[in-house]
Amino acid sequence: MEPLIVVDHVNKHFGELHVLKDITTTIHRGEVVVVIGPSGSGKSTLCRAINRLETIDNGTITIDGQALPSEGAALAKLRADVGMVFQSFNLFSHKTVLENITLGQLKVRKRSKSDADKRAMELLDRVGVADQAAKMPSQLSGGQQQRVAIARALAMDPKVMLFDEPTSALDPEMINEVLDVMVGLAKDGMTMVVVTHEMGFARKAAKRVLFMADGEIVEEATPEKFFTNPQSPRAQDFLSKVLTH
Asked: Domain named ABC transporter: which ranges (predicted)?
């Protein structure tokens, strides 16, 4: 398998707090890596560092062989290659659903309006909200908005998709409609890094689970191995708390 993201000895502090401690991991093309662990373990910071929403103190992160640029046009280009879906949907509230998905295509990918519209409608259909294209985001449910946010990221044809707790702001009945879209992407071979509390998704879609605690990757394994036979006391303790409820 070909490496797509290489994180090499990365450290990050917020003031006195050492949030990423010498993190090293490789994510291969077509791999779905799910990052789990207790709150404050550094999961979201790692996810955000991969597209430089967070700067790092030292170490390196490369995407498809390119080191992360620090700013400017090169960084914008990199961000177009790295789709990101957040907890909150971050849609443009003053634009329709369709416009939300065409904007980046027009501005960054320089597509024609007709091509951008066509691609947007294909993606809205794929995530199951094509009938909502003319609405404003505020007219949609949380689950629908998050599926639009996924379509918006996909519209840039990214090399990798990062998901930072994409279902944590949703009502329980909406979680599955978003996870189903993500499972579909995984089956289609999209490279994905997913920070989540959804253990069912980790079991079903992940090729590899990274378990983080206190800023470190404590354990990494296949979902089968991790959920049935976690090696570290920290992971055993975590799973005993999350899997019993």
From this structure: 5-239
Domains identified in the chain, total number: 2
Whether 70 maps to a domain, the answer reads: no
Low-confidence ranges of the chain (pLDDT < 50): none
Q: Per-residue pLDDT tens for 92-131?
A: 999 999 999 999 999 989 999 999 999 999 999 999 999 9
Instruction: Let me know if residue 164 belongs to a domain.
Output: yes
Torsion of CA 85, 90, 95, 101, to 10 degrees: -10
Q: Are residues 30 and 136 in the same domain?
A: no
**Residues 164/165/166/169 CA torsion (nearest 10 deg):** -130
Residue 142 falls inside a structural domain: yes
Quick one: 131 and 171 in the same domain?
A: no
User: Within this chain, do residues 152 and 189 fall inside the same structural domain, yes or no?
Assistant: no
* pLDDT tens profile 70-79: 778 888 888 8
